[in-house]
Design brief:
Layout lengths: L3 H13 L5 H20 L16 E4 L2 H10 L10 H6 L12 H7 L4 H7 L7 E10 L8 E16 L2 E13 L5 E12 L1
Antiparallel strand pairs: 1-3, 2-5, 3-4, 4-5
Helix pairs in contact: 1-2
C-alpha cells in the first residue's frame, strides 16, 4: 500500500527526470495532477464561491438488464423489475426504473464527477455519502437516454472539537431523449477535513 505522498513522488520523478514515455505520460501526468490537487485539497476547506457551479452534462442509457441486476442485488423479487410482461400486466409500459437506481447513474454515467469535485478544490479522499433524495417527474423506462447536469447548490463548513467538515449539496437534473424533465436528485456529501 502506498501513501498519497509516495504516489505523487513516483509520478513526479517519472515525469520530471525523463523516464516517462508517451505511454507513461498519458497515465502519469493526469495522476500527478490529481494527486497534487487531492493533497492541496486535504488542507483547504470548501470555497463557497463555487456554489451554483454546474458541471458538464453526462448521458446514461437506461438498460432493462441493469434494472433486473439491481433488483437481484438487493433481493427484491417483485416481477415488475424482472419481466416486461409482468410490468405490463401491472400497468407499466415496460420494466419501471427501480426507485433507487439513480444512485448508480453516478457510477455508470457520471464517471468524471470525482474529477470535477477535485477541480473545484474538494478533497474527495475524505468524502462520505450523507443522504440522497429523488423527485420523479415522469416515468423512466428501458431504452430512455437520460442527460444529467450536476450543480453544486449548497456548501458549508462545520467546525467541531476534532476538526472541521464540509457539507455539500449536489443536485442532478435529468431530461430524457425528448428533452422532457424526468428526474431530480439531491445528494448530500460530507467531506472530512
Amino acid at each position: 500500500m502506498y501513501t498519497m505522498s509516495q504516489l505523487l513522488s513516483t509520478c513526479s520523478s517519472y515525469i520530471h527526470d525523463g523516464r516517462s514515455t508517451d505511454r507513461h505520460s498519458i497515465i502519469l501526468v493526469p495522476l500527478y495532477e490529481m494527486f497534487t490537487a487531492i493533497l492541496k485539497g486535504s488542507t483547504d476547506m470548501f470555497d463557497t464561491s463555487k456554489i451554483g457551479q454546474s458541471f458538464p452534462p453526462f448521458t446514461i442509457e437506461v438498460e432493462r438488464c441493469k434494472i433486473h441486476e439491481l433488483a437481484l442485488a438487493i433481493g427484491d423479487d417483485n416481477p415488475i423489475y424482472h419481466s416486461r410482461e409482468a410490468a405490463q400486466a401491472a400497468g407499466y409500459s415496460d420494466v419501471p426504473l427501480f426507485p433507487t437506481a439513480p444512485t448508480l447513474f453516478t457510477f455508470w454515467g457520471n464517471t468524471k464527477m470525482g474529477r470535477h469535485l477535485i477541480d473545484i478544490g474538494v478533497n474527495v479522499m475524505g468524502a462520505l455519502h450523507g443522504e440522497e433524495e429523488y423527485e420523479y417527474l415522469a416515468p423512466i423506462y428501458p431504452g430512455d437516454v437520460l442527460t444529467g447536469v450536476t450543480t453544486l447548490v449548497d456548501g458549508k463548513t462545520r467546525k467541531g472539537q476534532t476538526g472541521s467538515m464540509d457539507i455539500l449539496t449536489l443536485e442532478v437534473r435529468y431530461t430524457n431523449q425528448h428533452g422532457q424533465p424526468v428526474l431530480n436528485v439531491r445528494e448530500v456529501v460530507i467531506i472530512r477535513g
